Amino acid sequence: MDTASEKEIKILIAEGDPADAEMIENTLRKGGLNFSMERVTTRQGFADALDRFKPDIVLSDYKLPDFHGFSALRLVRTKHRYLPVIEIAGFIEEAAIDLMKAGASDYVLKDRLARLPTAVRRAIAEAEEQGERDYEAEVLHESAASLREAQRIAEVGSWEWIPESDTQLWSEELSRIFGRDPSLS
What is the pTM of this model? Predict the structure, then answer.
């Protein structure tokens, strides 16, 4: 992949071992990622860097001296709903499945780092897509609320016929105008 056309990714890495951090950085560079990276080794450093550095993705060692993968994931999710987190470990942990269920984007073994650049790209793309879907859903929800309020103010209603099920959906205002129970729509 051409790194000149790829936007720079900000990577926050929570890794206690400098040699492992260097290995991760080299793997990402070999994988063609255009990135800047900040490494932290403590819980407080991690929390501070989330706010100050504003990463696009977090790579977290599963076990650090004063916190672990679940702690890192919880810290991220309290403030950053869509920030992808990839857990990295030296060996397979039973907790890997639990981390994925809790919201980690991926789990990569240190002896299989070659897949890390692809995992980073995929996790960022998925997070962006989810953010866009949620934004679109919120806009749609706000639009529907605005329509309901406009119908209430204007004392007009609307209905929709769904041919596949031969049903009608009445707006709350139309139900009120005709004295019909809105739950029947």
Answer: 0.69
Residue 119 near residue 86 (C-beta atoms within 8 A): yes
CB contact at 8 A, 86 and 12? no
- Identify whether the C-beta of residue 93 lies closer than 8 Å to the C-beta of residue 76: no
> 31 by DSSP, 3-state: which?
coil
Task: Report residue 56 as tokens.
Answer: 């696009």
Q: Whole-angstrom Cα distance, residue 29 to residue 38?
A: 14
For residue 17, how many C-alpha atoms fall within 13 Å in the half-sphere facing its CB? 11
CA distance linking residue 103 with residue 149, whole number of Å: 36
CB distance 170 to 159 below 8 Å:
yes
Q: pLDDT digit string (tens) for 52-101?
A: 999 999 999 877 777 877 888 888 988 888 899 998 887 666 777 777 77
Cα atoms found within 13 Å of the Cα of residue 58, Cβ hemisphere only:
32
